[in-house]
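Me: I hope this is not a bother. Any chance you could explain this protein sequence and its structure tokens? It all follows right here:
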Amino acid sequence: MPKDANVRPTQDRVREAVFNVIRERIPRSSVLDLYAGSGAFGIEALSRGAERILFVDNNINCAKIIKENIAIFKDTAERTQVLKLDAIRAISRLEKEGKFDIIFLDPPYYKEIAKNALIKIGACAILSERGFIAAEHAAKDILPDETGCIRLVKRKIYGDTAVSYYKA
């Protein structure tokens, strides 16, 4: 984990709950890990059989840590990519490059970042037809029930943290 005060790791119980919800969707999936931090969500998906993982974080220390973490795995170079880029810009850029089956979204809390990223994802249609988004956010944050091509299907609250799940 980067030693950066702005990085907030996801609690183990929250990450476990997310993977319990999406576990059947992971094998052979294309995954986008936005606001990736240490890359824990994407790496977990990789270890569970995801075909391709794209990690996006604009923090240079996070990008470096992600590269170090995925280097531990064998034969991941062709299946993983790390972009040091702002997530909103990455979403716009990715619209031309294909769709993702799973998107992990774990931005900083309380700044409407999750809401803005979801709106951008809905507008850019980077989620595949069977696509699924797991958006971690502060429980007090208000996220849209529907935006563009995505709609809320479930929201679970874990203390101060919530995870909202969206489908294409």
In short: The two ends are 31 Å apart (CA to CA). The beta strands are 30-34, 52-56, 80-83, 100-105, 127-138, 146-147, 150-158, 161-167. The chain is about 30% helix and 30% strand.
